[in-house]
Write a structure and sequence with these properties.
heterodimer; A: about 400 residues; mainly alpha; Formate dehydrogenase/DMSO reductase fold; 13 helices; about 0% strand; globular; B: about 45 residues
């Protein structure tokens, strides 16, 4: 066979392999599919109207409230929940704690997916998405704009996360040389990824610094960037616990028999980290509250809402994490993780939507189309995530250490 | 008696110092508490 024929044959094999892998596996009639498929279909129809008839045809946004559910939920909250990737890579590759190595790939994959879909969802929310490159070139707002920083960080972090995950892709494709080369890039990309994450997690908070007069004083502070960063650490840890629990149920066929026991050990370790971080975050919030002398603000509904968020979904889960770790109660830890995630959701939505323009007579409430599109983005992400996990060596612990 | 007055803790930094002292006290206790899990109450 001549050289050309070999190349054609290898391309043919490659495409046959890809087509084989694209075919669905497992049962179709599952509760998740039954719920997600209709929502995704409706979401696609709504997006058709959004792009043909404009943003105003499907959203309840206005000049006074230009940022709604898509940014508040998908971008601001979703990115915080993806914080687990940089925390775990820091612990494994920088601190050299090998115990968490088995969850690195799935956590990095989750982070990569979250950034890809949630940053991608930003394009849905731009009135003229074809000008989406403007923040990257510093057009109009210049290089000192926080959006300039965030857009570049999102882009670079997606690249870094993809390179961190790419050895798994190379293993899946049986490209041994490529795997070795990509694995050699891991430490450098991990350090780059951690640096970028520290800055853009806090940068997302910094976006709200200029909205001092619009955000309720209980939620606005000049330390929002630090709060966003610290809370992203425990949000990521809680997300790993919840996501790992679901993965252990859904993808149990892709795991080794003894992985359940090691996952419990990992959960205990994550709970310890989450307890300490949440404790620090809680006292930081308390210190800011006292420093600003905001006692009178607690007297109305917003005050009670603030207390619910800070005590109900920060302090209590922090204590539950500590209790669960001390008494090796994985059940308590899992409940605490769900509560911590609700707390993060509340905090981000409070800052971006609920307590934004809190004094206005006419408040923003998302349209049903906004809810459906938000769910569509999340469901499509889960579909792609599931496809990757069921095909690539993500969960098996015998993959080569990268 | 004019020379004596109570310090309003809500208007000074006194409360912030107290909170920080509480934080460090409780933080040290938390770290010691989380040093190792107890060997009971396993799920």
């Amino acid at each position: 066979m001549n050289k050309e024929a070999v190349v054609y044959a290898s391309f043919g094999n490659f495409f046959r392999f890809l087509i084989q892998e694209m075919k669905p596996r497992g049962p179709w009639f599952t509760p998740f599919n039954v719920i997600s498929i209709p929502i995704i279909l409706i979401g696609v129809i709504i997006l058709y109207f959004r792009f043909v008839y404009g943003l105003g045809s499907v959203v309840n946004l206005s000049q006074e409230v230009p940022w709604g559910l898509w940014k508040g939920l998908n971008v601001v909250t979703g990115v915080a929940l993806a914080g687990g990737a940089y925390v775990i890579t820091f612990v494994v590759y920088v601190m050299k704690v090998d115990k968490y190595h088995s969850i690195v790939r799935i956590t990095v994959l989750n982070g990569f997916m979250a950034y890809t879909f949630y940053a991608g969802a930003l394009l849905l929310d731009l009135g003229r998405p074809w000008f989406g490159y403007n923040p990257y070139i510093g057009n109009s707002f210049g290089f000192s704009s926080i959006l300039f920083l965030i857009c570049w960080h999102f882009l670079l972090y997606m690249l870094a996360a993809f390179i961190e995950f790419s050895p798994a892709v190379a293993e899946w494709m049986h490209w041994e040389k490529a795997r070795k080369f990509l694995a050699s890039l891991t430490l450098a990309t991990v350090i780059l990824g951690i640096t970028l994450s520290l800055l853009h997690q806090s940068g997302l908070g910094a976006l709200y610094l200029m909205a001092k007069t619009k955000i309720h004083p209980l939620w606005w502070s000049e330390f929002i960037p630090i709060q966003f960063f610290v809370s992203s650490v425990y949000a990521g840890l809680a997300m790993i616990i919840v996501e790992g629990t679901i993965s252990h149920r859904v993808f149990k066929n892709f795991m080794e028999p003894n992985s359940h026991r090691s996952f419990e050990d990992i959960v205990l370790g994550l709970a310890k980290g989450a307890a300490i971080t949440m404790f620090v975050y809680y006292f930081f919030k308390a210190l800011l509250f006292i420093h600003e002398k905001q006692w009178e603000l607690l007297n109305d509904g917003f005050g009670l809402w603030f207390l619910l968020e800070v005590i109900g979904f920060v302090l209590i889960p922090a204590l539950m994490f500590a209790f669960g770790f001390k008494h090796k109660s994985v059940k308590v830890i899992k409940i605490a993780a769900v509560m911590a995630l609700i707390g993060i959701l509340l905090n981000r939505l409070n800052i971006s939507i609920i307590c934004f323009n809190w004094y206005a007579d006419v408040r923003y409430f998302p349209s049903w189309q906004e809810f459906i599109v938000s769910m569509t983005v999340v469901f499509v992400q889960i579909w792609v995530f599931r496809w990757v996990v069921t095909r690539m060596p993500v969960l098996s612990s015998n993959h080569q250490h990268t | 008696m004019d020379s004596f007055y109570y310090v309003n803790i809500f208007e000074t930094k006194g409360l912030e110092y107290l909170l920080l002292l509480c934080f460090w006290g409780l933080f040290i206790y938390l770290v010691l508490y989380l040093k190792s899990p107890a060997n009971k109450g396993k799920d």
